[in-house]
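User: I'll paste a sequence; please echo it back and then give the predicted structure.

Assistant: Echoing your sequence first, then the prediction.
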Amino acid sequence: MSFLYDIRQRASKRAKTIVLPESEDPRTIEAIPSILNEGIAKVILIGSESLKSKIKSDNLNKLQIIDPANYKDTELVANEYYELRKLKGITPEEARETIMKDYVTFGAMLVRRGLADGFVAGASHTTPDVIRAALRCVQIDKTIGVIAGAFIMEVPNSPYGENGVFLFADCGVNPEPNARQLAGIAVLSANLFKQLVGTTPRVAFLSYSSKGSAEGPLVTKVKEAVGKAREMSPEILVDGEFQVDSAIVPEIAKIKCGSSPVAGKANVLIFPDLNSGNIAYKLTQRLANARAVGPLLMGFAKPASDLSRGCNADDIVDAVAITAIRA
């Protein structure tokens, strides 16, 4: 059974409500019938009530369409957003205009106000757009104090990872994380993997070096991150630094790494910077025909998922399912 199929089944038992703010994107409209028909989540769609005629489903009772132009609580939402942003110099008029016109921010405010359990956006917005809405409205969980973007990767017919399932991070947020940030990303990623996959996360910090085979400031940073991650969460299996083959291929791990609870068995891969993480997930997606769901934004008080602007409707459905499970 596909891991992502199982995710959809698990989400259907949770009855969570997820906001989809990108009503102008046809992929959103295409995804909604599957979300409703499979019972994955209840949906709040931001936009005109006329959109309902475009959605073919027998479960429209699980769909709520909210138009900021005539929503009964728009003024309350705008006032709350103003209070959040006034120290940044925003005026009440600017706050209201944002709430009226920026559907991603409006959707994030619905999550903040408890009307929804999470939101999914990014099909027609950039990652910075989605992250800004989450930062301003949902806010950071200060337990770890870092945000990041992870991808769940499902690689068909792969003996590596967790039967072909991996979590890659950070692939969407931090261009050059320092050692403390890398450690936080690893802890967030391990917790998310455990929540979604249900098995023990084995976290590998990746580098161009395996256990001292090379030197340099980038290797030093990764080594420091391993130590900091162990201090932050001693119960999590973390190790590194590893070249990627040492991390996931048992035969290579025996040659390069000796005994390690992670080497050759890693299912959570922590990349040293955004360049390598973003390149790796897209190469895996295209060359290995892998399913890639994300970026799943980590480190916020409530769950939010970004989407690649190259996503399809199935990607939106899976992102909604994962967001529902995280809620």
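The longest helix spans residues 179-197. The first strand starts at residue 17 and ends at 20.
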